[in-house]
Structures are given as structure tokens and as C-alpha cells.
Amino acid sequence: MKNLLFVFLMFIGITISSQTTQQKTQVVEAACGQCQFKMQGKKGCDLAVKINGKSYFVEGTNIDDHGDAHSKEGFCNAIRKAEVTGEVKGDKFVATSFKLLPAKKK
After folding, report:
1. Number of Cβ within a 10 Å radius of residue 69
2. Cα(6)–Cα(73) distance, integer angstroms
3. Which of 38, 42, 54, 76 is the most buried (most CB within 10 A)?
4. Measured CA angle at 88 (ends 65, 42), to 5 deg
């Protein structure tokens, strides 16, 4: 009986743990927070995303990890789409994955 109770409690614990750590993947706008989203609080150019109309600086990846930020299609000159996984923590978006989507042809 103790073994059955132990297995049941482990199953419940694993189920709860997997539900609370699950993050959804979503497509967001991504750009330089200062140049495109007019955000304050940091110096220089920093990667930011816009989720539900609110901008967040990104942790977990850097603006320079995704090409030249100052090129024609770079984050300082264009707002791009990105597929991200992560969560908002306070005033930051903590990314566990960040995939820049191809720029639309004009």
C-alpha cells in the first residue's frame, strides 16, 4: 500500500511540475528597444520584443547574435518577426529560444 501511495504522489508531482514549467512558442515583433520601440533605461542598442502591445528587453540572447543590428534589415532599422519561447519576468522577457523569421520581401 505504501508503494502504491508513493507512486501516486510521484505521478502527481511530475504532472504538476511539467504543467508549471511548460512555455508556449509565439511569434512576436522584435527590434532594438531604444531605436524602434523608444524604450528607456539602458544605454546603447538592446534587443527587445513586443508582446500584446508591451515592449520588454530580452535576456537569453543578444542583439548581435542575429546579424548586424545596423544593416538595412537589422534590429535598429526594422521591426522583425521572431518565433520565441520564454516568459515575462518583471519587466524582461527571458528567452529560452529565439528564432528570427525571414524578412518580408518588398
Report:
1. 20
2. 56
3. 76
4. 55
Lookup: cell for 20: 508549471
Q: What is the pLDDT of residues 51-74, one digit of tens each?
A: 999 999 999 999 999 999 999 999
> Which own/partner contact pairs does 13-18 have at CB distance under 8 Å and 24+ positions apart?
none
pLDDT of residue 32: 98
Tens digit of pLDDT for each residue in 68-92?
Answer: 999 999 999 999 999 999 999 999 9
Give residue limits of the domains in the chain. Answer: 24-100
Side-chain-side CA neighbours of 96 within 13 Å: the count stands at: 11
The position carrying cell 518588398 is 106
Choices 1.25.40, 1.10.260, 3.90.1010, 2.40.50: CATH for 24-100: 2.40.50
- Give CA angle at 78 (76, 81), nearest 5°: 115
- The mean predicted confidence, pLDDT, of the chain is 86
Contact between 93 and 84 under an 8 Å Cβ cutoff? The reply is yes
